[in-house]
Structure formats: C-alpha cells, structure tokens
Specification:
The protein is α+β, with helices and mostly antiparallel strands. It contains two helices and four strands, in the order E-H-E-E-E-H. The protein has one domain.
C-alpha cells in the first residue's frame, strides 16, 4: 500500500460470486442498473476503500473463470496470488 498517495493494489480474479465478469468492465466495484451484481468481494473492498479513503488500483488476473491459483508454499516459495503479494506486486486480494 502506498500510504502517501492513499492507493492499494487489489488482486481481482474472475471468480463468482466474489467477482463476476458479466459487467461491461472488469472489475466493476459498485452495483448499478447496468451491473447489479459485480460480486460481493468487489463491493466490500470498494466500501472499505471508500471508508479508509483509499484509491483501488486493480491487479487483474488472466485466469479462466473459477480457475484462480490462490497460491501454495512450494519449498519455501509462494506461488499464485499469495506469491504476488509476497513479491510486492499487490497489497491484498
């Protein structure tokens, strides 16, 4: 997280019901007439960021729907999303 600029890098994957890719843009963080169900995780992250006055910088995964590598510890080295966070490529998921 960049506290000076108040930004947080959030990993988003196409993983219903966490985040749906049925809206015009992915990720969509706020429900609207055109996108009534962006996903519960996306909506909660947006609410928290608004409350904390943080700008969300989306880090979008290219994985297929529901096929996200969340990560595992392979001989002391993290893979997947957890590996991205450990490597400093993202702040949270």
């Amino acid at each position: 997280m960049d506290a000076e600029n108040r930004q947080i890098r959030v990993v988003f994957g196409r993983n219903p019901p966490d985040a749906f890719d049925t809206c015009r843009e992915f990720p969509t963080l706020t429900p609207s007439i055109d996108c009534p169900f962006p996903g519960w995780m996306a909506e909660i992250v947006k609410m928290l960021a608004d409350y904390l006055k943080l700008e969300i910088i989306p880090v979008v995964l290219d994985d297929n729907i529901g096929d996200i590598n969340w990560g595992y510890n392979d001989n002391g080295s993290w893979t997947g999303v957890l590996g991205m966070i450990k490597a400093g490529e993202a702040d949270t998921m």
